[in-house]
Structure formats: structure tokens, C-alpha cells
Amino acid sequence: MNSVHVRFDGLNNDDGLRPGWHGRGMDGLWALLLTGGAVALLLLFSKSFGYWQYVILGSWYVALIAAGLYWRPFQIVTYVVVALSLFAVWLYSVGQTPDNNWLMRYVLQGDAAALWMSGFLLFATIGYEVYLFTHKSSVAAASTAMAWLGVIMGFTALGVRWRETYIGHPSWGHIPVGNLWEVMLLFCASTSLFYLFYESRYKAKALGAFVMPLVGVAVLFFLWITFAQNMDKIQPLIPALQSFWIKLHVPMMFIAYANFTIASLVGFAYILDGASQKRGGGLASILPGQPIMDDIMYAAITFGFLLFTISTILGAVWAAQAWGGFWSWDPKETWSLIVWLNYAGYLHARTVKGWRGTNMAWWSFLSLWIVSFCFLGVNLFLSGLHSYGKL
Amino acid sequence: MQKRMAEFVVIFTSMRFAVSLLVLLAIASIIGTVLPQAQPYADYAHQFGPFWFAVFKSLGFYDVYGTPWFLAILAILVLSTASCLIRNIPTKIMGMVNIWRDHGRDGGKQDVYRTSLRLADATPVLASWMTAAGYEPRVRATNTSASLVSVRGRFYGAGYILTHVAIVIFCVGAMYNANLPLKWKLWNGSIVPETNFSEPVSDVPQVSTLPLDNSAYRGNVTLPAGDSTDNAFVPSGNGYLVQPLPFVIYLHKFDITYYSNGMPKNFVSDIYIEDHRGQVLKRAVVRVNHPLSYRGVDIYQASFSDGGTLLRLDNHSLSNPGASPKHVTARMGDTLTVHDGYQVKLKSFSLYNVIPAKAAGVTASHASPFVDLGPSMTYIASTSSGQAAEFKTFVSPITRSGQNYFLQGVRTKQSQFQYLLIPVGPNGGINFFMSYLTQLKDDTANGTKLTMAVATTIFKKLVITSYPSIMANYRQQARLFQATMNAMTQLQAYPVPFIMTVHAYKHKWAAGLEVTKWPGTILLYIGSVLLVFGIMMSFYMPQRRVMAKLTAASDGTDVVITGHSSRSVNNIPDVIQSLYERLKTEGEGEHSE
Ligand code: HEM
User: Fold this and answer.
1) A1-15, A50-64, A137-151, A263-277 — which is least confidently predicted?
2) B403-411 and B264-274 as β-strands: parallel, antiparallel, unpaired?
3) Average pLDDT for residues B16-40, to the nearest whole number?
4) How far apart are alpha carbons A30 and A68 in whole angstroms?
5) Does B291 touch chain A (CB under 8 A)?
């Protein structure tokens, strides 16, 4: 084991994680509401629940409680998203539709909310770039607000769409992670959400100028598949995807992707920070400093790696049920193994060899290409059992 | 020699070696994703040409993940991880059991502070400060010195053990499932894949047959409804091996259910498991995501195909339209000679053809924007010179603006089907149209020019003789005439001199089932659980040690505080810093190096 003696003059993040007394009430309410929600779901759906649905509900329950306690703003986003989604679902249930209700047409229906998300996130991206060059903290605050709004509209879009998949043809209904449009929506919203987490935890707003452009590119791709490819059309699930596993496997995968993406772009910021310091440029003055960026990279990669591992295993268990084999060396499976081996290598170099600094930042940055290929490239360029995501 | 061996062990269990292996494995895996695996050899030969085909074949690129070199990399990785474990486990366990073990081993620069407190007083004071900082210490003291050690996340080392044990278990399970003894026999030639795919199972030689008690396999069967089998086929190299099963699988029924837009919703096989005397042991419905397990053998719904649908076909000759159609009885998959110089291969039969109503040009019902055009058959007609065209014949006519049509799709390459629309006459068939063609042919045979007037006259005559029911309905006559003219125009681009229609059919499915025996799977589950727990422990139960060494000095006590964290670079220096601060302010300490 190697011991590390590094002067560190940042915040002591470990202690910042524990909730103070003043937040106890909020946390209690959070636990209460989630418990109420879980019980309500049980009462509503327990007739159609199999053994595994309980496991899924339980996992979501524990994960959400933990996330909210760990990071209080998450509680508020959840309230807003749930309220908006339930409101839209209620409107549908009383006969309001996008055809006869302007609020549904322009704001609340899944497609419209997704466009609002796109707009907010693009503005946030631009805002963070402006902040990087002007150093105006009001611009940074506005960008953060935009990103929050984008996250809220993105998850609302997912929530409403979940309901919409059932409307008109109940047998089509599914959690909205079944095609490329739905998962791109999830990717944009969850990457932004995790970015906001790291931003608020490490008080590092300038990183938005590095992370959000990638989200911006994803949003543009998302708009392209919406308008040029009409991939927002609701389609039923192919038989292989009709499984409760999809409700754990895919969302977890995207939390992992989000964290890997953030780690990669923070790596990029780290590299530029180093270059800027050498030249005495102004960039380093606005970035949060290399020790913090190193910390964010490590935190994001470890969290991503943990979820990626669980999700890949769940995928393998699922494959064992759907295709008759734990592991079929299908391109998607193989590429996720490559992603996994890559980050296992990264973590060994860091923990065992104690590597730090610019080289590790490069490693993290370049890993994005591997991750992106696993996420999109495989669907676009290679064929296999996972090719349901094809354009 | 022994020195060499020791060097080898050091390299073999080194981090650099492990990371290199991980990278090598990643790169090797890429090959198999870029090159489609397990295609027929002819396809590869066509793609790469004879030279590269042979090179890639000898490198095993067509089945990368089953080649000896790939398995060897995996095996070395497992051995390396295992030996790394063996080397590290004792240290890790000792570290967990005995917190004093690493004490005093922290190298590097150490700050020494001298406090005016005497050793006996300084020890409890420092202990209380450490406790306040969240690091409650254990104390060992003598007359002249004292050691305070505090460890948080003491069982962190278990994370390492769990993850790496998991990897080893995983690979052992996977290798068991991969059936290495079989790989060996294939390699040394005592088992040889059969490459003749049209041979009945009973003729497959013994060298291509696997033992009944084979330890692990993954095979497939195509089973027509109403048939049974006790063999599965295991793809291997360019051929297959026959795997006898310990029971008989009987397919009672196969069914596909559809969504309203025509996408398949589920594939469902209703099967019986029987013993060899016909006794039913188990009956189950196998569908996608819902396999059947029976005595360690799992049966999955994998695919489906036509199980030999029985067809009665009518063949209408365009070169001799007056002749009555030839009747042919055939099964799906047969090759027929229905017309001189043409071979017709019956390719597929589908029960439903659901498409958007707009695309079919028909008006949609209120309930659904989709229409089902009913059953269709595709066949390929080819000449001996190799020219071929594919046809899609719909069994029942469709209605477009009040006129019924028989629909025949044609394509000559892998393009979209072009549809020929032949108007349907009084008895639902295309006979009216064929009669019209005959009349036209007869009346123009003597050199009469084909003008609009001639075409109309012939049409009117034909309506009187064979379609009297529409004589009074001019609009319908006009529609029929227009449709007939259109069809004649379309016929000019029609590539073969005959039209085949389906008179009657008796449909039959075949289910594609996958049959596996993978006893190693339980190890994979165990490995998965260990891996996840191990990773959680490694990441989120980091070990942090804070240690203080106190030595009695003439006018007080010398204090050295050290520590390390297995994870975070920030935490420990902060704690140490704050302890030194307190020492300075409250313990009148000063830096004495
Ligand atoms: C596929 C193979 C392997 C995988 C997936 C794997 C996975 C891991 C993981 C997830 C960690 C925790 C990293 C962290 O704490 O940040 C770790 C740590 C470690 N691995 Fe591996 N490992 C593998 C192979 C090996 C091999 C071959 C060796 C030996 C040469 C090795 C030696 C270690 C050591 C010494 C640690 C650090 C334990 C500690 O923090 O005390 N690993 N490994």
C-alpha cells in the first residue's frame, strides 16, 4: 500500500457530505414521501407484480432515498419532475391531449418537454462557455439554472413518455429506454444531472464549459434523430426487450456512461489547466485546481465503474434468459468488456501504482472514445443481438 | 535457474504484466467485433480472396473467442490474478487482524513536534484529540515511548480479495462452460465437425457425435410443429456436431403474436418433454425471455422458420394465356420446374403482412392506421443462365377505390418490391384478365393494329360473356377497364412469362430452439456477487490510518504523526495537519524536525 502525502488546500469533501441538523426535516419528508410513493405503487400494481418487480421497486427505492440524502438538491428535482409528470398524466386521464390542450401540446407532452430540455441544455452550454471567457459569476449562475431546467424537463419528458407509450395501445407500454431516441434523452438528462452534482459538490462551475459541450453535441444528435429520422415515434418493444431486466440494466448503464463522460471531460480540463499553468494563462485561475479535478475524475470513474459492473452483470444474466447464453461475444457485450478492462486498468494504475497527474487525465479523456463507441458506435456500425438501437 | 524462476514469478504477478494482459485482451476482443464471426467460410473467401482467407483462417479470426491463443490469454490472466492473490492474501489478512503490523513503516519526511507535556500526560491528551477527529486510537506504551494507532475501514483489504477471487471464479466457471476437453478433442482431431448440412442425423458419423453425458454444450434445433427430436446441433468451425439429448422434445404448437402495427410481440413454443418411450415428463410454454429448465438442460426460444407449409399453386402462363392454369402441390422450401427454362424456389411464407394503410393505398379503418394484407408467399424464379427475380404473391386480393386487385411484388435485385396490380374478375381470380389477354392476342394475331377502339371493343365483349353482373354498372366497368389497361402497361416490365398464384395453403411453423447445458453458471452467479461487493468495499470503505509516535525527551515529549489513506489524497493530511495545529496551540508544541 502506498501512502500519499500531498498538501491539500481545498475543502474537506468527506465532511461536506453529511447532512446538517437543519436539513433533517427535509430528509425526513423525503423518506416519508418516497415510502408513500412506494406503498402507492404497491397498492396500485401489486396484482401484476412478479417476484422480480419487488426487487426492482426495492432497488429503486433504496437508491433514490440514498441519492436524496446524499445530495439534497436531488430531492427538489425529484419533487418537481414527479409533480409535472403526474400533472401531465392526470391531464391525459381526464381527456386532455396535445390536440385539444395547448399546455400539453407545447410543454408537457413527451416530445415537447424533450425539446424544452434541448433548448435549455444548449443555452446552458453556451452560457458556460461565456462564463469561461468573461469570468462573470452571474453568467455562471444563469448557466447552472438553465442546466437545472434542462434536467427537469428531460426527466419530465421521460416520465410523461412512459405514460404515453400506453396510450392508444396498452400492449405497447414500456419504460422509455427502448430505442435510440429514448436513450439519448436519458443520456442528455442524466449526464447533466450528474454534472450538476459534481459542480455543486466541488463548487466548480468552470467545468461546465468542458462537460456541457458534449451534452450539447448529444442534444444536437438527439434533435437530428427527432426531426430527420422521426425516431420519436412510439413503437412497441421487440420480444427480446420485454423483460423486467431492462428497468435496471439500461438506466444503470446510463448513469455509468454519464459518469465516465464527466470524468473524461474533467480530464480534458485538467490537461488544459496544466498547459495553461505552464504558459501562465488565465484558464488555470478559473478552474478549480488540479487536486479537485483529480478527485472528481476518480470519484466519477469509481462510481461509473461500480454501476457499469453491476449493469453488465445484469445484462449477462438477462442475456442468459433471453438468448440462452451468459455471454455470446456479441459486439455490444464485447465492447462493454473492453470499456470495463480499460477502467480496471486505470484503477489499478491509480491505486496500485499510485499514478496521478496529466497522464491519468489523458487516460480518462481518451477513454471517452471507447465509451462512446460502446454506446453509439456499436449500434451504428456493427450488427449483433443489440442492434435494436439501429438508425 | 532458481533466480530465473523467481524473476519470472515477480514479472508474472506484477502490475505491469496484469495491465498489459488486460489491454491485450481488450485488443484481441476488438477483432471479433469488427469481423462478423462464424459466417459460412464461403463468405469469408469471397470477401478476402484466397490468400487472406487462408491467413485469417489459420489465425482463427472466424471464431476469435474460441481460438487457442485467445483462451491462452484468458488463462494467463487468470493464473496471474490467482498468483497475485496468493501472494497478497496473507499480507492483507495480517493487516486486517493485526493493526500494529504496518506501524512505523511509513517512510518519507516526518514532522517532529516537541511539546512541553510529559509523556504520561501527552498520551491521553493526544488520544482524546484523535478520538475527537474521528480516529479513536489504540495505545501501546512503555516508560519512554507510546504508540497510538487508529484504523478506519479496517476490512478494506477484503475488497481486494473479493474482487480478485471473483475474477478467478468467473473464469473457472466460464472455462467449464466453454468445455475445454471438447476444444482439445477438436484440436487433436478425435472429434471432427460434419459439414454436410442436408444429411439426416442417423447418417452423421460417430466422430461428429458428442457423448450423451457431455459436460457442457450450447446447441440448437429447428423443430417443425408436430415433430419431435432428441438431438441438438452444435455449430463448430465450418460444420456442426450432433449432441444427443437426454430426453425427447416434442413441439406441439408454435405461435407468433403481433402488435397492432404488425411488429411481432412474442414467439411462443408449446413443447412437451418426453422420455424415449413417449411418456410426457413436462409440458411448458417457452417464449423469449422465458426459457424452460429441465434436469440441468435449458431450452430457449431463439428463432422460427417455416416448417414446411403445404401449398396448392396455380401457374398461369403469360405466353399462352388461354390455357387453363397448371395446378402444382408443393411444400415451402421445394424447388419446382413450373415453366420451361425456369426453376422456382419457394422461399418463405408469411401469415400476416401488416403495413400502414397509406402505404397500401387503401382506406384505413377507424381502429387502426394499419392494414393486414393477409398471407403471402415469396419465391425466386431463375433461369439456367443465372438470371433471377424474386416474387411476393399475396393469397387474397386487396381493394383499392372499389376495385379488387391481385397483388404480385417483383424485384430483380435487393431493392424494394415493385407491385403488379392485376384486377380481379367475377370469381375472385385473375382469369378475367387472362381471358382478356387471350382475346387481345387472338384478335391481333391476324395483323390488326391494337388501338384504343380495339381494346375497348374486346373488353366490352368479354364483360358480356364472362362478367355479366357488372353490365349495368358503368362506373365499375370503367374502373375495371382502367385497371386492366394499367396492368397491361405494368406487365411490359414483368421479367418472367408466368404468374403464380396461391390457390390454397396449410400453414406450418418450425420453432428454432436453443438447448444448453451450462453447469458452470452457478459459479458465474457467485462470482458476480463477490465482484460487486468487492468493488463496493474497495471504493467506498477506504482504509485510513492515523498513527502517532510519542517519545519522552528531556523537557517534554517528541511527537510524530503520520497516516495514509487508501483512497483520497485529501483526507489524511488534513487530519494530521489539524492534530499538529492543536499540538502547537494547546500543547505548546513547536516544530523541532
Ligand atoms: C481482470 C482482472 C482484474 C480485475 C477486473 C481487477 C479489479 C480490481 C479492482 C476493481 C480493484 C480496486 C481498485 C481500487 O481500489 O480503486 C483492484 C485492485 C487491485 N488489484 Fe486488481 N483486478 C484484476 C487483476 C489483477 C491482477 C492480475 C493483479 C496482480 C498482478 C491485481 C492486483 C491488484 C491490487 C494489488 C489491487 C489493490 C488492492 C488494494 O488497494 O489494496 N489485479 N483490482
Assistant:
1) A1-15
2) unpaired
3) 78
4) 7
5) yes
Residue A302: per-residue pLDDT: 94
Q: Do B573 and A5 touch (CB under 8 A)?
A: yes
SS (H, E, C) B324-383: CCEEEEEECCCEEEEECCEEEEEEEEECCCEEEHHHHCCCCCCCCCEEECCCEEEEEEEE
Cell of A220: 444536437
Q: Which of A17-26, A283-292, A368-377 has the lowest mean pLDDT?
A: A17-26
Q: CB B300 to CB A323 under 8 A? A: yes
pLDDT band at residue B319 using 50, 70 and 90 as cut-offs: confident
Residues 210-249 of chain B whose Cβ lies under 8 A from any Cβ of chain A:
218
Tell me how close the Cα of A7 comes to any Cα of chain B, in angstroms.
Answer: 7
- Where does residue B224 fall: left (phi above 0), alpha (psi -120 to 50 degrees), or beta otherwise? beta
| CB atoms closer than 10 angstroms to residue A256 | 29
Cell of A277: 499553468
A273 in contact with B, Cβ within 8 Å = no
Other Cβ atoms less than 10 A from the Cβ of B93: the count is: 13
d(CA B332, CA B495): 23
Please work out, in degrees rounded to the nearest 5, the angle formed at the alpha carbon of residue B573 by the alpha carbons of B567 and B574: 105
Residues 286-345 of A with CB under 8 A from B: 291, 294-295, 298, 302-303, 305-306, 309-310, 313, 316-317, 320-327, 329, 331, 334-335, 337-338, 341-342, 344-345
d(CA B446, CA B437) in angstroms, rounded, equals 15
Beta carbons within 10 angstroms of residue B184's beta carbon: 12
**Cβ neighbours of B344 (radius 10 Å):** 23
- B282 pairs with which residues across the strands? B273
Phi, psi of A177 (to 5 degrees): -135, 35
Mutate to test the interface with A, among B33, B152, B526 (most CBs of A within 10 A): B33
Q: State the complex-level ipTM.
A: 0.86
Contacts (Cβ under 8 Å, ≥6 apart) of A226: A111, A114, A115, A181, A232
Residues A131, A263: Cα–Cα separation, whole Å: 21
Kindly report the pTM of this predicted structure.
0.81
Q: Which of B224-233, B234-243, B425-434, B445-454 has the lowest mean pLDDT?
A: B445-454
H/E stretch holding B173: helix B156-177
* 3-state helix, strand and coil shares in percent for chain A, rounded to the nearest 5: 80, 0, 20
Cell numbers 472429434 correspond to what residue?
B191
B33–A378 C-beta distance less than 8 A? yes
Most confident of the following: A202-211, B22-31, B333-342, B357-366: A202-211
Q: How far apart are CA A174 and CA A239, in angstroms?
A: 12
H or E element that contains B235: strand B228-236
8 Å CB contact between B408 and B499: yes
Please give the Cα distance from B431 to B466 (Å, whole number): 10
- Annotated domain spans of chain A: 1-70, 71-237, 239-391
CA atoms of B37 and B33, how far apart (whole Å): 8
Q: Which amino acid would we find at residue B491?
A: L
Q: Residues A261, A263, A269, A274: is their CA dihedral positive or negative? A: negative
Cβ of A291 within 8 Å of Cβ of B570? The answer is: yes
* Residue A3 CA to ligand 1 centre (angstroms): 17
What pLDDT band is residue B363 in, cutting at 50, 70 and 90?
low
Report the alpha-carbon distance of residue A219 to residue A49 in Å, rounded: 35
Q: What is the pLDDT of residues B73-100, one digit of tens each?
A: 888 888 888 888 888 888 888 877 777 7
Which DSSP string corresponds to B2-66? HHHHHHHHHHHTSHHHHHHHHHHHHHHHHHHHHSPPS--HHHHHHHHHHHHHHHHHHHTGGGGGG
Rg from Cα positions in chain A: 21
Q: Ramachandran region of residue B267, left (φ > 0), alpha (ψ -120 to 50) or beta?
A: beta
Tell me the residue length of chain B. Answer: 593
